[in-house]
Write a structure and sequence with these properties.
about 775 residues, 24 helices, about 20% strand, elongated
Length: about 775
Amino acid sequence: MLNFLKYTYRLFRRSLGYTLINMVGLAIGLAAGISILAYIYGELSFDKFHNNRNELYRVNMVAINPDGSYPSFQIPAAVGPSLKESFPGINSVVRVTQPEGGFFEYNKELWEISEICYADSGFFSDFTFALEEGDPATVLTDIYSIVITRSTALAIFGDELAIGKVIKLNNKNQFTVTGIASDPPFNSSLQFKALISFSTLYQDKSLFMDWNGGNQYMTFIRTAPGYDIKNLKNGMADFLEDKINRRIKDSGWHYDLKFEPLTSIHLYSLSDISSGGSIGNIRIFSVIALLIILIACFNFTSLSTARAMRRSKETGIRKVAGASRAMLIRQFLGEAVLMSFIALILALFIIELIRPWYSAISGYPLDLFSSGKIELLAMIFFLVLFTGIVAGAYPAFYLASFNPANVLKGGSGSGKIKSFIPGLLVVLQFTISAGLISSLLVMQNQISLIRNFDPGFRANNVLIVQLSGEMSASNPSFAGNALSSMPSVISWSAVSNPPGAGAERNGYFPDGRKEPILINVIGVDSGFLNTLDIKLISGRNFRSGSPADSMSYLVNESYASSFGIEKDKIHYISRSGKHPVIGIVKDFNFSPVFEMVQPLILTMAPESGYNALLISVNGDPNLVKTQIEEEWRKVFPEEPFICIPLKSYIDMTYTGINRFAQLFGGFSVLAILVACLGLLGLSAVILQQRQRQLGIRRILGASALKLTLRETSYFSLLVLAGNILAVIPVWIFMTGWLASFSYRISITISVFVLTALITLFLAWIAVLWQSWLAARVNPVDVVKYE
């Protein structure tokens, strides 16, 4: 072993330039591969830290009609308790609301806290979240009790004892701190900064807590250990018939319940497109990691094969001295594996450099050596070993196959194989690189379409001001009128939730339907259409202050076409009374553009009240925002001021796809860099081998420029061949990726032309200067060799 290390060290030092190229290429490939491996490990580890993970399931309610099925993880509050009463295999039920932001007040100071949830009393018994202070069985039992995380406690109370303190939420209800929990780990689907007892919700009589509406609660069931969830199918039809389906059977709809394992929610969610994870992304990044590693391995292989002549005599002498083919293969493979492990050290340094970028984009810590990551470290070890074996396999078998007699007489095997294999590997490298660049260009074009997509309403120069305090929320007209006195404010409107990121869904009875249908709804006022420049295509708008209009609805075109609104005939929608439709508005994208526009109802009587003001402004929104805040402080001095541009609010719905594209782009750059390094080293070797040929051509009259263009054209043809091979795989892959968007671009030939130009430019940077130096060589120096 010691002799092997000494010999390998001397070999690496003797060919320092090529050693460095190989090492840097392998290091970049390993750094990218390990980073992607860490990302995949993090994605696959979601929710697996819960002790009861194998017994926990999230309940999805599926609305079914002849046109299809529509699953939702936000369901009525009564479903969970009803299941526990009817099915003995269910041990417990925990309901949790979606995280929302808010302001806590303590000692007349305000703290903005994100991710505030309501949760049932069994939350800490069923889920393995560490409770640092408090009794897990009782911390969420009493109404107006709250558990806050350690980071929230430090922000509000500092070093004070938090248990027993009273804090006010959004200038409304007061809550007693009953527990302190550790912050949830990053790989938890449930994230929270504060948990309020679910029983508190029952104090609000305006909420629907039965089967008849209020589809806004996540419900988790915990089954008995070893219980087969498929057993719940027995009796489920009768259960749902009794609870809801009997009442809606004439509508053409019926409901079913689906139970998804807790550990499947992040990557395999039945209904939550915002779950943050995607098994498709895992597969894509796995392929990228493999491709980058292969590019790095191809570099090693092509350089080793091209330089085989230099080691041919060494191989012949070793064989004459008694070395077997197997011994030589082990020697050459050992060199490659040792190079791979040395490259790992440099790869870890590169990972440290990209850690801030990686964590900012992915949202995950790039921590390889923390406790509990033995599996990840084992995977990294086998990745490095795999890289070394793959990189060194062909050179090892190729070098070990030389015939000692031919080698010592000056031969070195098949010249055709020597020239063919490196060229083939360059083509494969640039096939991968071109494929990644083309895919990235398509992604960027699609993201550009989303960013510049016309949602059907004014999104620029519109601010959202949250009505988070009791005084402003109870009197939005007062708040809007106070702000509209400013010269920079054009118009304003109160809404239950801003458009662009989705809408609530409630059960309604359109004319002719005897049972409720889930339809999207947004609470608005008479200024909504004007503020957002939404077109009214028939009928009339709401009238401010009209009692009759507070009982009327506007609907969009999709609703009109889906439920058959007839001209000159009043259409009614029933929910807590009959509501006439007084107008139809042009379709606009109130949900993200991943889906087509669905039927929508606009009402002046939102069940959850108005939660925000939309303010159309004239001028720089950031400057106007400062002016609005000054006015707000005068009108509502004790309430928080929360204001963001409507465009930013909409853009936040595309955070996931932006992260994916940025990660894809970053790793694509690394892949291209590795490919260019390989081309740099390979061109140097090949041009060195052709020096005599170039010298003879110079003697025969060829100019340096002509020889430079000739040698560069050889590598250019290899790069172009790689581009051509990449077209069909990219077309197939990106067509499938674009299929997830309702509004999408078309893949055009210009993408592949631009990719070819980019890869040719990069190849020329790597090759052109070396070709010029080789072509300018003094013919006397190289031809007099013999």
